[in-house]
Amino acid sequence: MSATVALDVDRWLDCIGSQALLELDRYARFAYLAGALPEFRTLVHYRLRPAHPVLRFVLRTLYRPESTLTLDAERIGPGLFIQHGVGTIVTAESIGEYCWINQQVTIGHDARGRPTLGDHVRVGAGAVVLGPITLHDNATVGANATVIHDVAAGVTVVAPLARPLAGSQDE
Questions:
Q1: CA 171, CA 167: separation in Å to the nearest integer?
Q2: Distance CA 169, CA 166 (A)
Q3: Which residue spans within the chain are E strands per DSSP?
Q4: Rounded to an integer, what distance in angstroms lies between the CA atom of residue 123 and that of residue 140?
Q5: What is the model's pLDDT at position 59?
Q6: pTM of the predicted model as reported, rounded to 2 decimal places
């Protein structure tokens, strides 16, 4: 097991927080995550890009990745955690270490380029991050926020709160 995948396993177990899983040996932990979590399998398949095509084909057949999760980046640092990766598309320049991405997130390009995520960045459910921007270290994007400008280190950005439309019945 590569050092990066070993860090991924440790991070996922830390995020899941199950004491029973922590008591398993390293390979049993990996086997559990690869067998039970399609998001983890998708990340492992990303990590296996340099492997021989036949090996990748066999592993994709046996351990299918999450069909609605796309990971496309020049580099993804160790410790990426994807919680409920259903309907999530990530096309970034790079993703730093120990980031957290939730479900139904779009991190994508526009005509000018793709985003870059620093270390320890967290992107909440339903968020959209577009264009050649940077989410600097320890930035947080709240649920359903749309981000088209850089987010400074340590800053949290959120979407406006829901409010009734003028003229609606429940005003």
A1: 7
A2: 9
A3: 69-76, 81-82, 88-95, 100-101, 106-108, 116-117, 122-123, 128-130, 134-135, 140-141, 146-147, 156-157
A4: 6
A5: 84
A6: 0.90
